[in-house]
Amino acid sequence: MLAEDRREARPDRQPWVPSAGRRRKVALAVLLGLAVTYVLTVSLEPSLDVVTANHGSWLLAVEHTRWVPPEYLQDHLLRDVWIGRNEEHDVTSRAPGVVILGLPAYALFGGDTFSVLPAALTAALVTASAMTLLFLALSRVASLRLALVGTGVVALATPVWSVAADGIWPHTLTVFAVCAGAWAAAHRNWWALGLLLGVGIWGRSHFTLVPAVVGIWVALSRRDLGILVKIGAGSALSLCGTVLWSRWMFGVWTLTGSYRVGSVSDLTDRYEHLWSNELGLFLSPERGVLPWTPIALVCVPVLVMGRVRVPDWAWALLSAGLLYTVVQGFAQVFHGGDTFWGHRLGIEFVVCAAPSVALAFTNSGRRTRSLFAALLGVQVLCIALGSILNLPGVVAEEAWRTNAVLEAAKSAPVPMSILLLAAAGLGYGVNRRASRDSMGADVF
Q1: Is the pLDDT confidence value at 1 over 50?
Q2: Cα 286 from chain centroid?
Q3: How far apart are CA 224 and CA 217, in angstroms?
Q4: Is the Cβ–Cβ distance between 186 and 407 less than 8 Å?
C-alpha cells in the first residue's frame, strides 16, 4: 500500500465509511433538501453589492453590452464602489465570477426588465451543490452520520445560508470552491483540486492564497512535488482569467478584477486601525465569526485533541482559510457593508475549517457532544431567523456595539428567550435520543 493510502485509510476508520452507492443516495437527498430550503428563502431585496453584480449579468445576457447606463445609481454616494470606468464608459466593478455566474439564468429568464430573482435562484442552487460536495467529501473519510451532521452545521448554522445562498456574492463562488476542493482532495484528484479551488479566485482574487497553501502543505506532507504542480497549474488558469477579465472590462491589466480596480494599499485606506479591523472579523458582536458561531468554543479543544484523525488536506484547508481571512482583514473593512444577516467576510474560514473539525469530533466525549448540540440548536435558530425572514441585520456603523439577535431579543424579550431555550433544548434532546437509538453512539 502506498504511503498516501496508509494515511487516509486508517484501520479504525474504514468500518464506518459508507458504500459509494449509499453515499450517492444520501447526497441526492441532501441536494434536494437544501435546494428547496435555499430557494424558498432567497431575498429579493439584497445588498447593492449583489444587485449591481446581477445588473452586470443582466446587461451582458440580455442587452449584450458591458456598458452601464450613466444614470444607473447616479445619485448614490458609493457609486464608485460598484461602478468603474473603461475609458469613457461606465462598467460593473464587481468580481468576474459574480457576474459570469448569473449569465446562464439571465440568458434563459432575464426578460426585458431587470430582476434579481434569476441570480438569487442560481446562488441557492450553487450553494446547495457546494454543500452536497462537502457531504460527499466527509462521507468518504468518515461515517455517514458524521458527514450529515458536519454538512448540516455548515449549511444551516452559518451565514452560508443567509449570505452565500441568498444571492450571488463572491462568497457563493468561494464556498463552492472550498467544498468542491475538499471533494477533490478526498479523492486525491489534484488536477481537479487546483481547477475547483480556482473557481474561488473569480470571486476574490486573493483567494489565490488558498490553493497556494493547500498545494504547498499537501506536497510537503506527501513528499510529492507533482501535487504542487498540478494544484498550481489549475488555479493559475483562473488567476490568468481574472487578469484578462480586468483588461476586457476595465481596460487595464490588474489582478484585482473588481471594486475600484486599485491596489491593496488603496483598499486599506478604508479604515484607520489594522488591528481593530482584524479583530473585528472574529470578535465584532455583529460581524464577528465567534459571536455568530458559538460552537467554536467547543470545536477548538476538540480539534486539538482529535488532530491525529484529520488528514493533511483538511489541515491545509483550515490553515489556508485562516491565512485568507487575515489577508481579508488587511484588504477590506471587517463589517463587510450592510443588508445581510450574520458575518460575511469570515465565511471562508468557517467552511475551510469544517472538514478538520468534523473529523476531529470522532473521539470526542459525550459531554462535549451534548454541549455542542445545545449550542448548535441556538446557532441554527439565529441563522434561520434572518434567512427565513430576510432580515438585513444591524447597520455597519453599529457592528462593534450590538448584535442583530440581541436587538430582536430587546424588542421581544420573552418570545426570543423561549425560542433560544427551546432551540438549545431541542439540540440537546436530539443528540441524546440519537445516542439511545444507536446504542451509545451519539449523533457525532
Answers
A1: no
A2: 18
A3: 10
A4: no
Specify whether the CB–CB gap between 238 and 199 falls below 8 A.
yes
Share of the chain above pLDDT 70, in %: 89
pLDDT by residue (tens digit) across 20-61?
A: 788 889 999 999 999 999 999 999 999 999 999 999 999 999
For residue 67, the surrounding DSSP H or E stretch is strand 67-68
| Distance separating alpha carbons of residues 95 and 242, to the nearest angstrom | 8
Cell numbers linked to 414: 420573552
d(CA 95, CA 237): 16
What's the rounded Cα separation, in Å, for the pair 65 and 56? 9
What is the distance between the alpha carbons of residues 439 and 185, in angstroms, rounded to a whole number?
A: 33
Q: Identify which of 390, 371, 241 has the alpha carbon closest to the alpha carbon of residue 302.
A: 371
Torsion of Cα atoms, 333 then 337 then 341 then 346, to 10°: -20
In this predicted structure, which of 6-15, 300-309, 358-367 has the lowest mean pLDDT? 6-15
Against a cut of 0.70, is the pTM above it?
A: yes
171 half-sphere exposure, CB direction, 13 A CA radius: 28
Q: Quick count: other Cβ atoms within 10 Å of Cβ 269? A: 8
The answer to whether 287 touches 280, Cβ cutoff 8 Å, is yes
User: For 178-187, how does the pLDDT look when each residue is reduced to its tens digit (9 = 90+)?
Assistant: 999 999 999 9
Range list of H helices, 285-334: 289-292, 296-305, 312-331
Could you give phi then psi for residue 83, rounded to 5 degrees?
-120, 125
CB atoms within 10 A of CB 297: 12
- Print burial letters for 359-397: b (CB count within 10 Å at least 16), e (below 16): bbbbebeeebbbbbbbbbbbbbbbbbbbbeebbbbbebe
Partnered with residue 89 across adjacent β-strands are 86
Paired with 68 in beta bridges are: 90
Does pLDDT of 18 surpass 80?
Answer: no
How far is residue 271's CA from residue 289's CA, in Å, rounded to a whole number?
19
